[in-house]
Amino acid sequence: MKIACVLVTHLPLKAELRRCPELQSKPVVIVESYGSKDVVLDSSPEARRIIAGMSLQEAMSRRKDAVLVGADQPHYDEVFDGIIDALQGRSPLVEKGDLGCAYVGLDGLEEMYGGEPQLITSLLQSVPSQFNPRVGVAMGKFPAYVAAVTSGGGRATRMPEPESGRLAKFLKDFTVDLLPLPWKERARLHQFGLHTLGQVAALPVGAVQAQLGPAGKIAWELASGVDSSPLVPYRPEESVTEFLTFPSPTITQYAVLTAIGILLGRAFARPQTKGKYVRTATIESHIVRHPPWVKRFSFKEAVGSRERALFAIKSRMDTIALPGPLEDMTLTLAGLTGESGMQSSLFSDVRKREQLKEMMRQLEALMGRRPPIYQIKEVEPWSRIPERRQALAPFDP
């Protein structure tokens, strides 16, 4: 299958430059937080010797005049989703890869567009020019990705056909870091002295597989120019979104929970959620002089009402410290389904047991620990000593 890889390199940086043009020509470093650790997500060419994944401390030691920008992942996802929507207008087969990378099925479209050059031009034009997209075309996703990496901004590169033998020759000098393998597996290849795709392809497949397992076979096939992985069309998840703005920036738990309750009420009143259950709720707020605050709540069992969703969110919000005053709030309910995730029983005793389980879960969420509820169990009913006949055991329905 002929596939085009549409690649936008440094999408977070380009999204920030489009939003804040005053950052142009400055050493910009986009910082993402993982718990208590801050790491570099992306950086501008002016921020030399700073690479993605580097700790903020090391980055600042290399470039003290760097302009730090907090990562706005929801904004980057929104920008990328817009690109995916535009590509889906060109082809019915679009796979959403990593941020900034999409794969487009081209079979049967050339006649519609009047040839491959016109089709590729249409793909390039589907992405805003500020993002300077690249396109690679090949018979497979990995060769198409490598072709896109080698393309210049706003240009396209076509890989040779695999059967000609020229594809493997074209790939042989590229680094193994392009392989879609976990970082540890790519590091092992470097440890074995295998730094290029040609060095991997020159080995017997069994030798590579013996060291890396199933990932070794995949690495060997891709390095040899063989990629039979299917194109998986992207299907956007059905969701419902509600928004409100606080009269003044607020940081109190009461005001935040009240806002969540209002948004949940609106969301569950929408026609899309009538008779439906939801599996996740995402809250996003803009904060004064801080990056946006985003919190995602996954429900253990899908919820179908405002009350149950609010109870589950409230029990977890009690332990969350807000990073600053919230200016607004956006609530998104996703994972809509017609099933609650709980199977009702035909037998009354089992129904009672399910009710007891729900009661215990609610008490545990409310108290933050397992509730001190016990039941009497027989241990040695034949014993002459009363204390040995029965014992208290934690209640577990």
Question: Could you explain how this protein is built, in words?
Answer:
By secondary structure, the chain is of the alpha+beta class. The protein contains 15 helices and 14 strands. It has helices spanning 11-19, 56-62, 73-88, 110-113, 116-125, 141-150, 166-171, 183-191, 197-201, 205-212, 214-223, 253-269, 306-317, 348-367, 386-389, and strands at residues 3-7, 28-34, 37-43, 67-70, 94-96, 101-105, 134-138, 156-158, 239-250, 278-287, 290-303, 326-334, 374-378, 390-394. The strands form 4 sheets. It has a 5-stranded mixed beta sheet with strand order 5-6-1-7-8. A 4-stranded antiparallel beta sheet has the order 9-12-10-11, with helices on one face. It has a 3-stranded mixed beta sheet with strand order 3-2-4, covered by helices on one side. Strand 7 (134-138), helix 6 and strand 8 (156-158) form a beta-alpha-beta unit. Helix 10 packs across helix 11 (214-223). The longest helix has 20 residues, at 348-367. The radius of gyration is 27 Å and the shape is globular. The mean pLDDT is 86.
